[in-house]
Recover the amino acids of this structure.
């Protein structure tokens, strides 16, 4: 049993291969105890995943603090409405209720990109920035979060914008660069089209770019031909857990 972090909100990052969790110190925006990872069950139905959440929380001290969970799907008032990369049983599942009952804790579910966006604005690359910040995660697809003056506008799904007859993420996600073996320059051209479209629609103050490829931001961000400031994310793998804990705390308030 961990003896740390019992009074802190807990964040769980639910992914295709692993479920990771830790208590979060919101004064620092960092883990209050060491993160624990458990393999995602197969099949990863909501009921099977709920058992893993209970097991994960059991590795830490008992606590009444709320729990936030990231889900790769659209979430409205705790109900999951899409499941592009997860088990189809998630669609229309009241995940807040299911996980609250399974764990005995107050659980709040949030879209994974939204959680990362909240974390970056509160503690990371966009800390202290006013106005509209758009956080995008470039990975298998393109996740997005709109945060205005620190307040999340959820479920933006900007990766599904249509550009030249294609879903933007099919052409401009990090997976597209790898699949088509694009040079950094060619990929930056596609990203320029994507971010230019976002500029036209939203006129943001700042773009923040997350996802694993953000570690190589120096290879492609300088090649983008856009007007808005664009910077790499800072929190990397911690963003989902930290953002989920923020979301759970504020949903409780």
């Amino acid at each position: 049993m961990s003896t740390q972090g019992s009074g802190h909100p807990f964040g769980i990052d639910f992914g295709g291969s692993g479920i990771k969790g830790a208590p979060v110190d919101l004064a620092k925006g960092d883990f209050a105890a060491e993160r624990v990872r458990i393999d995602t069950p197969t099949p990863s139905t909501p009921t099977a995943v709920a058992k893993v959440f209970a097991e994960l929380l059991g590795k830490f001290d008992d606590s009444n603090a709320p729990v936030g969970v990231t889900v790769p799907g659209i979430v409205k008032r705790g109900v999951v409405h899409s499941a592009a990369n997860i088990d189809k049983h998630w669609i229309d599942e009241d995940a807040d209720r299911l996980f609250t009952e399974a764990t005995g804790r107050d659980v709040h579910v949030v879209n994974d990109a939204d959680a990362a966006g909240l974390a970056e604005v509160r503690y990371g690359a966009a800390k202290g920035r006013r106005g509209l910040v758009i956080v995008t995660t470039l990975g298998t697809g393109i996740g997005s979060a709109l945060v205005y003056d620190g307040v999340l506008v959820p479920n933006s799904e900007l990766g599904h914008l249509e550009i030249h007859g294609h879903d933007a993420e099919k052409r401009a996600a990090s997976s597209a660069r790898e699949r088509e073996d694009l040079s950094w320059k060619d990929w930056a051209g596609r990203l320029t089209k994507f971010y230019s479209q976002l500029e036209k629609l939203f006129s943001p103050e700042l773009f923040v770019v997350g996802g694993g490829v953000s570690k190589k931001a120096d290879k492609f961000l300088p090649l983008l031909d856009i007007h808005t400031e664009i910077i790499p994310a800072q929190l990397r793998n911690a963003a989902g857990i930290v953002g989920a804990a923020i979301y759970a705390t504020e949903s409780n308030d």
The mean pLDDT is 94.
